[in-house]
Amino acid sequence: MEPDQWLAQYGQKIEQAKQNAAQAETQLGGAGGSATSPDGLITVTVNAAGALENLVLRPGVRDMDPERIASAVLAASGQAQRAAAGRVVEIMTEFIGDSPALDFVKAQMPRGYSGDGTDVAEPEPEPQRRDTRPDDDYFTNPPEVMG
What we know:
The chain is mainly α and about 150 residues long. It contains 4 helices and 3 strands.
């Protein structure tokens, strides 16, 4: 192979790599995930890195115990992060294929990623830790402590 021909082919490979990198950057920049609590009151959106981008609290949240709100936000955040990580893995698979580099990307996902075989089929119901009835109702009709 002539040196000029080799150099031209090498330049084409470099140009293709630059285009692929720009395309991956664009796709990863738009990647993210979203999840809603089982009761539909809380929705969380995260970016490709899993950082919180948006939090929506619907009116029914006002009646919830703060600990329950926090728990629902954290659970939805975890689901959204797994969804975002799943999208990142899809994008990277497109560009680098199934390789040690992809294994490294997967290993960097602290909560795993959607599609890794550990997805929960249905969200488990959150146990009710506190009786949230108004005090008058609670004392008029207390829960059975001993049964």
